[in-house]
Automatic annotation (TrEMBL):
This is Bifunctional inhibitor/plant lipid transfer protein/seed storage helical domain-containing protein. SMART domains: AAI (SM00499). It holds the Pfam family LTP_2. Gene3D superfamilies: Plant lipid-transfer and hydrophobic proteins. It comes from Citrus sinensis (Sweet orange). One of its GO terms (cellular component) is extracellular region. Keywords: Secreted, Signal. It is found in: Secreted. Residues 1-32 form the signal peptide. Residues 35-95 form the Bifunctional inhibitor/plant lipid transfer protein/seed storage helical domain. InterPro entries: Bifun_inhib/LTP/seed_sf, Bifunc_inhib/LTP/seed_store. The keyword Cell membrane does not apply. Belongs to the A9/FIL1 family.
Length: 97
């Protein structure tokens, strides 16, 4: 009888663990989709970040898009972008003049 209770307890714990993992994955996917959408909105800023562009003052659409991007989303994207050269067997990018 104790073995059965132990097995039930173990399967309940395993089911709870699987449920927590599923919730964590779903939360991460939702955050990822939200981040992608927020970053896509930054396309309105593209004309203001191209070298040699005459207009350097961003539009209100660009500013609103930038304001709506979650800080973690933006910073994680920059970190990922900074890793790309090494993952492509290229030298690291240096942005110093």
């Amino acid at each position: 009888m104790a073995a059965i209770k132990s097995m039930v307890s173990l399967s309940t714990k395993a089911a709870l663990l699987l449920l927590l993992i599923a919730v964590a994955v779903q939360t991460q996917m939702t955050h990822s989709q939200s981040c992608t959408s927020e970053l896509t909105n930054l396309n309105s800023c593209a004309p203001y970040v191209v070298p040699g562009v005459a207009t350097t003052t961003p539009s209100s659409d660009c500013c609103a898009a930038l304001q709506s991007v979650d800080r973690d989303c933006f910073c994680n994207t920059v970190r990922i972008a900074a890793r790309l050269p090494s993952q492509c067997n290229l030298p690291p990018l240096s942005c110093t003049p």
